[in-house]
């Protein structure tokens, strides 16, 4: 299977590789945060408005008035155009180091899987009858799930503070005020509210995304080579990233909606099962896909931009390392 930025070759250059993953992850995280923060804020407000309407027992007609346009108008009217970037700081605080740590952890996990193949592949093949080649196809799925699950837990408090800071249910003046409020009313446990839904959303998303990203990228590169089409690598990565992001977003949307509800009001939505039951009773199946259109406008773009920038940065580090070794 094709690896991003020649993974196995780069594994021989441990220190430059780790720096490259950290820098690439940080730059990609920063770029996507600043560009797409308004969409993230609007998504939070739309999901919150549905929650508020259900509490007030408002009619379906009134609920439908909460659209993307009316939400944007309300934000701009209240806070000005700059209000669309409310929550950018906590998003950066969470996503920039988080993305850097994620890409670095992912690289190490993928390398560990490759190195340990002689140990686990024969056993898995005997038990399941799956060939070595097919097993390798699912390595990205496992690596993505594992890396995102671990990093997500570490960064969970920032996620909770970010969601509450963006929401107008609380109108916190600062991140410190949000932190103090959570600790006062929900304790330390409140900083990890919604982790179950977050894990079920983010970990499978990362695995599914990486699986399809490599699949689409391999197909695109094969087509490019077969027909000798001069397509830039960054264009291939962006296209593959967008398609993979769309697929993973649709599959994991119900958990994104439940995660937001649980983090906004953990007393009403204490766990995944209670949240799922309440959403289903209030809105039916369609309630689980509340905010999907907006998430589709943001998440595939965010993932595509992040991976395209990340791969270009790592590729650049690899070329510089190669040139410096040649010079020696």
Structure description:
The chain is mainly alpha-helical. It has 14 helices and no strands. Helix 2 packs antiparallel against helix 14, helix 5 packs antiparallel against helix 9 and helix 12 crosses helix 13. The longest helix has 43 residues. The N terminus is likely disordered.
Secondary structure layout plus pairing:
Layout: H1 7-10, H2 14-56, H3 60-64, H4 68-79, H5 88-115, H6 117-128, H7 132-137, H8 139-154, H9 156-166, H10 175-190, H11 195-226, H12 233-264, H13 272-283, H14 292-327
Helix pairs in contact: 2-5, 2-12, 2-14, 5-8, 5-9, 8-11, 9-10, 11-12, 12-13, 12-14
List keywords for this structure.
0% strand; disordered N terminus; mainly alpha; 14 helices
Q: What is the helix fraction of residues, given as a range? A: over 70%
Number of helices: 14
Q: Proportion of β residues?
A: under 5%
**Structural class computed from helices and strand pairing:** mainly alpha
**Largest β-sheet summary:** none
Cα Rg:
21 Å
Secondary-structure element string: HHHHHHHHHHHHHH
Strand tally? 0
Low-confidence stretches: 1-16, 58-64
Would you tell me the overall average pLDDT? 84
Tell me the distance between the termini.
32 Å
Shape verdict: globular
């Amino acid at each position: 299977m094709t690896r991003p930025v020649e993974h196995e070759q780069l594994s021989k250059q441990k220190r430059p590789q780790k720096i490259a993953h950290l820098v690439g992850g940080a730059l990609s995280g920063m770029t996507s945060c600043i560009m797409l923060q308004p969409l993230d804020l609007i998504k939070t407000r739309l999901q919150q408005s549905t929650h508020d309407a259900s509490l007030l027992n408002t009619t379906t007609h009134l609920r439908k008035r909460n659209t993307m346009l009316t939400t944007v108008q309300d934000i701009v009217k209240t806070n000005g155009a700059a209000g669309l970037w409310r929550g950018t700081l906590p998003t950066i605080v969470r996503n920039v180091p988080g993305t850097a740590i994620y890409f670095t952890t992912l690289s190490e996990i993928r390398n560990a899987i490759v190195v340990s193949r002689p140990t686990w592949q024969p056993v898995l093949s005997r038990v399941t009858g799956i060939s070595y080649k097919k097993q390798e196809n699912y390595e990205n799925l496992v690596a993505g799930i594992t890396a995102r699950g671990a990093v997500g837990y570490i960064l969970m408090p920032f996620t909770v503070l970010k969601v509450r800071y963006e929401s107008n249910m609380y109108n916190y003046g600062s991140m410190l005020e949000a932190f103090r409020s959570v600790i006062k009313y929900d304790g330390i446990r409140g900083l990890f509210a919604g982790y179950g839904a977050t894990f079920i959303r983010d970990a499978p998303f990362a695995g599914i995304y990486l699986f399809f990203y490599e699949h689409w990228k391999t197909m695109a590169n094969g087509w490019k080579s077969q027909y000798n089409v001069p397509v830039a690598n960054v264009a291939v990565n962006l296209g593959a990233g967008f398609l993979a992001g769309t697929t993973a977003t649709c599959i994991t949307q119900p958990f994104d909606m439940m995660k937001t509800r649980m983090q906004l009001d953990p007393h009403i939505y204490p766990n995944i099962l209670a949240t799922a039951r309440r959403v289903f009773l209030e809105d039916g199946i369609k309630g689980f896909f509340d905010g999907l259109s907006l998430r589709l406008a943001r998440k595939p773009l965010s993932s595509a931009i992040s991976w395209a920038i990340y791969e270009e940065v790592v590729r650049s580090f690899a070329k510089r390392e190669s040139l410096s070794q040649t010079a020696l």
